[in-house]
Amino acid sequence: MSAVVIAVLQYATAVTFVIIGLAAYQRGGAAQRAAEAEVVRQGFTREVLARHRVRIEESLAELMLPLGVAAVLTVLGTLNLIDAGRTATWVLQPVLLLAGGYITVSQVFVRQTVAAAFRDSEDAVDTRAVLDAAFAAFPRWLRSVVVARFLLVTFGSAVVLVLAALG
Prior knowledge:
Blueprint: H1 2-41, H2 47-51, H3 60-81, H4 86-108, H5 110-119, H6 127-135, H7 142-166
């Protein structure tokens, strides 16, 4: 039974990586242009975002990372269903918990992350307005998937590791 729960959590996490990766790739360019237009409207050059390492669009090469993570999780889930994934789970799930948790927390708290990038700068950008403009380019439901991925990567990974230890 625990193998099924582990596999379901791994599959669900994989799905969130695919959804968010494809949405970022498909709509990220429009979101980037909207954010740049907003900083220009505020009287800054559009390069102010790059100077503070704020980038919303995702290249095809960058899309490969979430798709690769999803592929690994899908294989791992399948291996767990046939009782052949325990060792791989013990190796890969902690990596997902730590690395994925680190990355996804900045996406969940994106407003705070972007505000911090400008906090000690002479560029007094209204980051809320910039992000509002960028977010408008994405589907409304995407934010819920971002939060779900964070929960699956962190708490879901912890559950997977506990079940693997018990199983």
